[in-house]
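Help needed: design a sequence for this.
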């Protein structure tokens, strides 16, 4: 049913699915749930109330579900919930939620977390995201789907990044990023639209419409919230509505100046 290295410790109470492989010198704590066909490398610690879905691969020395780096955390029962088909590379750290947050950290499907990625407490990560080496998410950060974050990039706590964004390596994010934007800099600013991702998700006509709306939103002719509300009121397109609603719900502001748009 499953293979466990002779030097590993799987504590009583842990639930291990079918065809799971666990390497050497691992510790799997008692409240852990590991789904079918997961592969756990060597020296991996999976702790707390952590749930892994199916076919996840956790590479050597990762720390999954270890207590949050939050001084307010007092050992309360909180969760880390991970979906299916994720690649969690070496020395990645994934923290559960906190009682002061939503009580859980949630990660979707088919994500790639490269070596030394850190996902802090109470984060939400969508599906099909790529976080390159040493990308760091502070507490309560939210990522949509298809988000790429370059290496050595810290994301400030409570920041939200919409679907389809591309964040350049070495950037520093302190504000919210609307869907399908290209972002770069320290401090980071929106530099344009992620046309590469958009071409995989939308038709030419849809891309042109999104581009048209972003030109209006970034025109500096009025506060961006007013422009977003006006576009939301008159545009029934679901994607445009999601962009405008993202801007209207932003609590940290939108970092744009001199945005280039085709």
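Sure. Designed sequence:
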């Amino acid at each position: 049913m499953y293979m466990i290295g002779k030097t590993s410790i799987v504590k009583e109470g842990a639930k291990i699915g079918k065809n799971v492989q666990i390497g050497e010198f691992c510790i799997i704590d008692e409240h852990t749930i590991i789904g079918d066909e997961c592969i756990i490398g060597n020296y991996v610690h999976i702790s707390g109330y952590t749930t892994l879905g199916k076919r996840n691969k956790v590479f050597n020395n990762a720390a999954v579900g270890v207590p949050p780096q939050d001084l307010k955390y007092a050992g309360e029962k909180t969760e880390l919930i991970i979906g299916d088909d994720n690649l969690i590379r070496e020395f990645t750290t994934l923290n559960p939620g906190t009682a002061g947050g939503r009580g859980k950290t949630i990660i979707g499907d088919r994500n790639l977390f490269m070596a030394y990625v850190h996902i802090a407490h109470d984060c939400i990560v969508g599906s099909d995201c790529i976080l390159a080496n040493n990308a760091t998410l502070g507490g309560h950060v939210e990522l949509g789907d298809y988000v790429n974050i370059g290496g050595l990039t810290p994301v400030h706590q409570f920041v939200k990044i919409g679907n389809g964004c591309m964040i350049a390596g070495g950037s520093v994010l302190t504000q919210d990023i609307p869907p399908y934007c290209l972002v770069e800099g320290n401090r980071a600013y929106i530099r344009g639209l992620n046309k590469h991702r958009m071409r995989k998700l939308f038709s030419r006509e849809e891309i042109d419409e999104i581009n048209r709306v972003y030109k209006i939103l970034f025109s500096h002719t009025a506060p961006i919230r007013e422009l977003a509300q006006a576009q939301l009121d008159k545009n029934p397109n679901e994607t445009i509505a999601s962009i405008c609603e993202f801007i209207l719900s932003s609590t940290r502001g939108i970092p744009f100046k001199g945005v280039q748009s085709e």
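The radius of gyration is 20 Å.
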